[in-house]
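Hypothesis: this fold can be encoded by more than one sequence.
Test: take the structure tokens below, design a sequence, compare later.
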């Protein structure tokens, strides 16, 4: 069980969210935010969320941007676990920025994928041939990239 230190909310193994005597069912792929306070350290293996932001070079064409984005999202199927030979990303997605806040800093596209554990992320970053080939293909297209990884609730 993962819970807020102030007991206003918690996620139970049954995938129910309990907030002040209210129970809400969530799916196994939901991301739950709790603003009640700092969360406790997890007791079980937590998923890793991997966020990638791209700023494309000004010379990059719309067709190149679409190609990169489709290939980035396609990694979820192309990246297979070395033992199971099956895709190992738990969830994935991405798209063009549409935030009205104006804090993009040149980044126009964002992607997020979820790994079951740090070992899967390490394989993806260091050894997965599909991912390494994709990264190499970005030379000359991407001006800047940002990557942030985190375990939900670990601060």
């Amino acid at each position: 069980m993962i819970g807020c230190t102030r007991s206003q909310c918690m996620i139970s193994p049954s995938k129910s969210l309990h907030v002040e005597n209210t129970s809400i069912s969530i799916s196994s792929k939901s991301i739950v935010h709790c603003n009640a306070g700092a969360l406790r350290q997890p007791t079980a293996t937590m998923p890793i969320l991997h966020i990638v932001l791209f700023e494309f070079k000004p010379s990059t064409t719309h067709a190149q941007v679409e190609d990169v984005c489709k290939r980035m999202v396609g990694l979820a199927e192309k990246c297979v676990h070395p033992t199971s030979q099956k895709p190992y990303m738990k969830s994935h997605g991405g798209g063009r920025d549409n935030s009205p806040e104006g804090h993009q800093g040149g980044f126009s596209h964002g992607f997020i994928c979820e790994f079951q554990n740090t070992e899967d992320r390490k394989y993806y970053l260091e050894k997965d041939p599909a991912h390494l080939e994709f990264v190499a293909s970005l030379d000359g297209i991407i001006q800047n990239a940002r990557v942030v990884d985190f375990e939900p609730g670990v601060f």
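The mean pLDDT is 80. Residues 54 and 145 are 5 Å apart (CA to CA).
Hypothesis status: open.
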